[in-house]
Amino acid sequence: MISGNSAVMRKALLDALSLPAFILLFTMMGFGSLARGAGFGAEMAAVASLLIWGLPGQLAMVELTATGQGFIAIVFACSLANARFLPMVVSFVPAMSRGRSTRAGMLLDAQLLSINSWAVCLREFPHIEPEFRHRYYVTFAGSILAAAVAGTLLGYHGAVLLPAALVLGLIFVSPLFFALLLSAVPGRAERFSMLLGCVTIPVAHYLFPSVDLLITGMVGGSLGFALGKFWKAGDAD
Amino acid sequence: MPTESLWLIVLGCAAATFIWRALGVVVVKRIDAHGAFFQLITCVSYAMVAGLVFRMIIMPESELAAVSLTTRIIAVAIAFAAYYLFRRRLVAGVLAGGLSLSVMVAWTG
Fold it and tell me: Nearest CB to B47: which of A39, A76, A194?
């Protein structure tokens, strides 16, 4: 068990720098260059990474703006693409076991959340004393957010020109990271849900592309939850 | 498009994303963290995140769409092999998978 403010902050920084900060740097470089192509200013792209802080929604915003959609359509599409934050916040906050917290504090924590922090923190929290988890989270999330904003600006200004094959490898790093991280998630219901999510997404994407993730979450998640319960009941017999 | 409307889009999108986060805070204040509903929501988030990752690998809309599905799947297999070979080190898996994809793309050009 890790405890102590400086030990926890050191661990958070090292964990962020071991991979996630670089992944965010590279992925947001991609976003930065797309945002430029769509006509956004550099500071707008940076603020988008800082305040939207959810790549699928940011990409929806840039793509729909580039194709000349209206304000409502763009904002709506971005919102739908980022709807996963609702269940993510709900499943994350109790795991952080932050004792007393004001509503404003909780909203700020929710604003800092991203898939990276969610997946990494849920994995690391069991090794950290409960009273230090919030500090770990804020340090980790803050570092990768800084990397993301830096990446957005670097990508916007086309600071780094790399061979196309290498760029593709770098883009691929992000999904690989999550696939490996998620493969180690314990819990039967969670594993069933992930498996069913993978089965549902192609169908949902084909039928309802704009709400495919929402459908995937609801179908895969509730079936996985039910299967987990069913299995546990079977074990008890 | 004029600068003001682009700013409006950025801030509108930020607000529209924040709504989900704020709703999450509202819900979490009202539920029992050890109850069945909490477990259900946790399962929903895992299904969504797994679906998102699956979509990024199998049905990408990014530049990765130009890379063949076979190449992407081989790279994932290499990543998992390296991950387990190096005692579950994420860095090993990610590096092996990313690099092998780059090499295969460069090779088949």
Answer: A194
Of the candidates B7, B53, B66, the beta carbon closest to that of A182 is on: B53
- Work out the number of other CB atoms within 10 angstroms of the CB of residue A176: 29
ipTM here = 0.91
* Structural domain contains residue B61: no
Domain extent, residue B81, equals 67-109
Split into its structural domains, chain B has a count of 1
B37-63 pLDDT per residue, tens: 999 999 999 999 999 999 999 998 878
**pLDDT tens track for A50-90:** 999 999 999 999 999 998 899 999 999 999 999 999 999 99
- Is A2 in a helix, a strand, or coil? strand
Task: Answer whether residue B109 is part of any domain.
Answer: yes
Most B CBs within 10 Å, among A93, A172, A216, to test the B interface: A172
